[in-house]
Specification:
Layout (H helix, E strand, L loop, with lengths): L5 H55 L10
Length: 70
């Protein structure tokens, strides 16, 4: 049998626990970022849908092109 280095085993356990905590923190940050991205996408999609609908309406009213110049 090999002697057990109790201190080395304690350090390994602490390191594993720290790695687990860091993984959970990274997962939480990733989940939050995904939620923000999904919300931003939904908001942008709503704007695009509105603009597309308005453009379709304008074409139906005979407006062919609108040019904005700064």
């Amino acid at each position: 049998m090999y002697p057990i280095d109790v201190e080395a085993e304690r350090v390994k356990a602490a390191t594993a626990e720290e790695a687990k905590q860091k993984t959970e923190e990274a997962r939480d940050v990733s989940t939050s970022a995904l939620n923000v991205a999904q919300n931003n996408y939904s908001e942008a999609q709503g704007i695009v849908d509105t603009l597309a609908s308005e453009a379709e309406w304008m074409c139906g009213m005979g407006v062919v092109m609108v040019w904005f110049s700064s």
